[in-house]
Amino acid sequence: MSVEPRPLLSVEKLTIEIGGAAVVDDVSFDVAPGRVMALVGESGCGKSLTSYAILGLLPAAAKQTGGRIRLDELELSALSEREFRKARGKDISIIFQEPSASLDPLTTVGSQIAAAYRTHNDVSQAEAYDKARQMLADVGIPDPDRRLHQYPFELSGGMCQRIMISIALICSPRVLVADEPTTALDVTIQAQILDLMKKLVSERGTAIVLITHDMGVVADIADDVAVMYAGRVAEIAGVHSLFAKPQHPYTALLLASVPTLDDLPKADLATIEGRVPTPDEFGAGCRFAGRCPLVTDKCRIEQPPLFDCGDGHRSACWHIDRMHEIVEVAA
Amino acid sequence: MSDPNAHVLEMRDVAVHFGGRGGLFGASGQVVKAVNGVDLTIGRGETVALVGESGCGKSTLSNTIVGLQAPVSGSIRVGGEEVVGADRRKLNDIRRHVQMIFQDPALSLDPRSTIGATVGEPLKVRGVAKGAALKQRVGELLTQVGLRAEHADRYPHQFSGGQRQRVVIARALALEPGLVICDEPVSALDVSVRAQILNLLVALQKRTGVSYLFVSHDLSVVRHICDRVVVMYLGRFVEIADRATFFDNPKHPYTRALMSAVPQADPVVQRGKERYVLSGELPSPANIPSGCAFHTRCPLATEICSQVRPELTPRDDGARVACHHA
Lengths: 331, 326
Prior knowledge:
The structure holds two protein chains of two kinds. By secondary structure, chain A is an alpha/beta fold. Chain A has helices at residues 47-55, 81-87, 99-102, 109-120, 125-138, 144-147, 157-169, 187-204, 215-221, 239-244, 249-256, 297-301, 323-330; strands at 9-18, 21-31, 36-40, 62-71, 74-75, 92-95, 175-179, 207-212, 224-229, 232-238, 307-308, 314-315. Among the domains of chain A are: 99-172, no CATH class; 245-330, no CATH class. Helix content of chain A is 35%, strand content 21%. The two termini of chain A are 28 Å apart. Chain B has one domain (9-97, 177-321): Rossmann fold (3-Layer(aba) Sandwich). Chain B is 33% helix and 20% strand. Chain B is built from twelve helices and twelve strands. In chain B, helix 4 packs parallel to helix 6 and helix 5 packs across helix 6 (161-173).
């Protein structure tokens, strides 16, 4: 994370507990305007909870027990639900994985987009519709006049995701959280949506927090990446640095387990043995210790802090100096 | 199987259509031509990938091969035996040679059956084994997929997603089928688990000589595991080629668009590659464009494309491509 403007969104030492277990533990990252920060990890790593905390949408069972989240000068984690409702949609917005599950099936898409605009702006219905029409054109929906009056079931998955993006962006929020925005879409449509998100970032300077498990999507669109494992940040770096020289065994193995165009066909792919520990199995040490080829006694006893590896590349591993061994394991 | 030299699968001019005869509300519904004149042969121990977007007909085609869907015309031979028009008893007999693995293992397993009962069921139903012999065979199958024999007494919820997919694979292999249809078998799994399942499928093929029809949209997985690739668009094959030919020299503009659309897990490659983004979306299979069905989205389209449907024609390197301009 080289030279960059002042962060817009700042997550500091965020800790979220469910039933006394820290399912998000001491997570920190910053996102500057016009940048895309990807939170990557497997199911249960805490990436979605982190994003819900940013939106003030944590489920009832989950409690934020530490840290803070700031949007510029505004401390989001201190907001009441009433105050949060003013910020949501206007300053900070979210798109989810399954657009058809997030849209109201009984309301036309035009009215849903206009409603989002009128929630935060005192304008007439006609003005809100004008705004919605313009927004549809911006997200690349052909024939917006006709589309405004259609229902979600009349639109394809890709179209519905564009509608979701329209609703999320109609009030020009400064931060957009995108939770697996293309996972449910076909690859050709995914490419269109990713291109659209890149355009929005560069034209509007929106800061994006992208939640994904797809390393290809990360490689395509992210500026910075935080790799999460069992609720903690294992590694955080600029995208090029992370892919070129991963400094955490988990990242290195994850990258090696994705088939690439250089692999020998049908050769064994690198795997990570075992499984992610459940919260009641979290020990005092590194949470990846049970699956790590570099593990030593120290790893099991003492939790590694994020070490600086230069250029803003940080890794929570006691054995960064032995990373070359992982490369050999993976190859 | 009856004829040991026969291909595990031989399809000739298979078409599957839906609707058109009144429909649910008595309207004269449109005919949806989900699969339209498809030829496909799969040899022993071969893995063929079937690639395409949702709505292209790949799932209909898979369902037709296992006999869950009847074609309106054409011939399907599994291990030399004709599926189309076979009576119930015959169909039952043929079906043991072709099995299926689906995307989401959680939806493919009965939550109230132990995995031992699940994996043993095909053996029991077919009268292959019972009692102690059944128990032993189930144990062997579980071991074969990297689980343990004592797991047989557990229920699906006690396993992770990757382990459940192993159970599904064990069940599919119970009757030693010649062909297993894998419908997006790793798409629902986490990345690190995905590699384990792919390695397992390759290892099982080496050991048993089973063939796979591998339905997927993930071209890096396809390249890793397949010998031959078939690309489908709106019910027809548009390109068929060996893996090396396919990936070194893709020809059909749709194939090239798909390849360009799959993001590579390498920011330098991904951001440097030639972009070939398709405009628009897949037209409805109820209303397939005239001529070449792809002409509405194709960057190379000319007048002839909207009038004359291109046939699959062989090229010098062995690939077969249906395009006037490729």
